[in-house]
Amino acid sequence: MGTLLLDGVSKRYGEAVAVDRVDLDIRQGELVALLGPSGCGKTTTLRMVAGFIEPTAGRVVIGGRDVTRLPPYARDTGMVFQSYALFPHMSVADNVGFGLEMRKVARAERDRRVAEALRLVRLDALADRLPRQLSGGQQQRVALARALVVSPAVFLLDEPLSNLDAKLRAEVGLEIRELQKRLGLTTLMVTHDQDEALAMADRLVVMEHGRVLQVGTAEDLYERPANTFVAGFVGRCNLLPGAREGADVFRLTSGAAVPCAPDAAAPGGLLAIRPERIEVAPDPAGAGRLRAMTYLGGRTEYHLDLAGEAIVAVSPTPLPDDPRRRLNAGDPVRITWIPDAARVIPTADAASVTPTPEKSPAR
Amino acid sequence: MGQVRAGPGPDTVTREAVTRMRAAPLSPLAAPALAGPGLSVRLGRLAFLAAVFLAYAIVFAPIVMVVVTSFFDQEIVTFPPDGLTIRWYLNAWAQRDFARGFLTSLQIALAATAIGVPLGTAAALALVRATIPGRGFINTVLLAPLAVPAIVAGSALYMFYLRAEDWLDMDIKATLGGLVAANVLITIPWTVRLVTASLAGLDRAAEEAAANLGARPLTVFTRITLPMLRPGIVAAALFSFVASFENLELNLLLVGPGRTTLPVAMLSYLEFRMDPTLAAVATAQILMVTILMLVTDRFVKLSRIV
Ligand SMILES: Nc1ncnc2c1ncn2[C@@H]1O[C@H](COP(=O)(O)OP(=O)(O)OP(=O)(O)O)[C@@H](O)[C@H]1O
Ligand SMILES: [Mg+2]
Q: What distances in angstroms separate CA A233 from CA A223, A225, A237, B212, one per listed residue?
């Protein structure tokens, strides 16, 4: 059975901490994406699961078996490398069959499963080609088939779409997701592209500086970010400093009072509000002012000023006769949102974003 | 001499092009100004081709000269030739020393390649992959024979062999073993150099992918690493063989009566005669190396490696 458990897994290189006490529990058939900025430890985490990097501390458990000290070949993982890493001297079919050969699967059975895997990724016509005779997208699918064909307990994907062009990316992303669901593969995927992660994953893990900041579904992260980093990293977000003044009133440092969601746990800090949750309307008596308006076809972006605080709002572009279409830079506007759309994030959470004490402060 | 003439050509063209391009936006009549860069680009390309041709001519001139003079029908080479002949080839064939030298050189070069390439490949693997102390120093030592003048290395080996013969009370100089051992000093550095370069460019992810699919380290090496290194190793074998086969200086003092390499035999011939027989032998060698390279190139694209 394919479950994956990371238990306090850390990796340090001398003084530097690449991965810091990561805990993660992935259920059978679940796709979890590691998401975070460059250098946050995503690849290191993935490679510790595959066995290419030995953790400094913690345990890696695959299907109930502690594999922390096992070499890569003894772990039952199937990895798709960012560079695909196909064997250049072997045909597509031999590439895909390699894992089965290592598992001593008989010739006839092997041929059958290779053909099946190639059909799955729609490459059965190209079985005899060499990797260099394939396009990038085709090579990517060979890499997928090669990892899939051995039915690994855990499927690992390192930025699987990063070498594809924008159009192919969405398409292949969906294909991978479909395959993963159909085969019920327990999957850990790495990406720094939040759209990719939101679209494909059951759950997302947001990392920064080697630490897990939040684990949750796309909705959890988007609607209820645990801290300012997650709020800013997953989707766009306005973050306004100030303090709670009543159950659903937030006083901005600049003086204005605005509505916020009632939440006893968060007395003060930053008010997080998504651009698309903000309504903008022309109003000579409005407290806000329009600084600039960007027409983006289907959407229009409003760059607003509320008592000295810069705010971005996005809405579907209004019809031509809508008064908002006639707004000009400098016009006064009314800025509104429903209280539940604005969550107060305690600034204390910002501390978890700063480097851990183990890291030497100098340097 | 050729370069002096080639120099000002492209330079003038470039300057002309620059002046015209600068003038172009200012000119209200754009048409003639637009024709200008087109012409100078074409002139530039012509000058470039001429330079390339010249470079090839300079490289190939000596080889062509050797081949051509081997057919001249006179002992002292003068232009124009009195006539054309193949008698120098027949003479070379008749000289037992050349035939024996050829066989000896072939034996030595093959044996030295067979020993040096595996050793050099192993050394390159250790140097690139393992974390051994003094890696840079070992690398330098392994490549040193290429940097030391062969005649110096040959003299040192000569003295060393004489000493060793005394201590061990056995023949080393002018034996096949002694000569092969000396030539391994040529084949190892060539192999280390070429295989190290190959290894540096090797995609480690492919090896990791194999391990991920269940291959143990030895299987990864034989099934993935070695095949991916094959072009580098083949090139190393080719260059090792050629470098050893045509080497004169290193072997000069180590050969003896009855066991002489082809280059040394040619040098000895030159002491008494100055006729085009040597050109004929050289032509035969050029032919052999060319065929070797063409055959190798069929298996691995040499231009991608060296
Ligand atoms: N061999 C190493 N020695 C020292 N530091 C390392 C080593 N490998 C990685 N690191 C450090 O560990 C941190 C995490 O690296 P990692 O490759 O996991 O980042 P990542 O999240 O995959 O980033 P990216 O999105 O750029 O691929 C980085 O700060 C990196 O500099
Ligand atoms: Mg990475």
A: 13, 10, 8, 32
